[in-house]
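**Polypeptide and fold**
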Amino acid sequence: KRLLDVDGKRLEVNIPAGVTDGQRIRFSGVQPAGGDVYLRVKVRPHPVFTRKGADLHRELAVTLREALLGGEVHVRTLGGRVALRIPPETQNGRTFRLAGKGLAHFRREGNGDLYVKVRVVLPSGLSEDAKKAAERFLDLVDQPDPR
């Protein structure tokens, strides 16, 4: 719901779910003489989600442990938090689709999807012991040159 000021008269209107930036909405018969009011929608950017139609996209930081060994992480959605299972050996940049966790479709049933892109955060400030342990581990891993 939003309040509009039309010719000095305050009107409360319901903005339909799923409207897009720049979309024009007509409110019939709301002016004093029964005329229509047209409203152009301006959608503010969200600090976490980006939008493509009814689909939402976001990044999710995961630890090196979660990426290498797998685990369950909680992801914030518009409807609350959900658990996402990260499989072992998940690569940086992998995207997971959470069906139906996006925005409502405009004047249609159902919701879009939420796409969660993994961003692996490497540990920093390693002690000498941790550096040596990392070196021993990396010597055990046969990783071809990715370039």
About this structure: Strands lie at 2-6, 9-13, 24-27, 37-40, 50-52, 55-63, 71-77, 80-86, 95-98, 114-121. The helical segments are 64-69, 128-140. The mean pLDDT is 92.
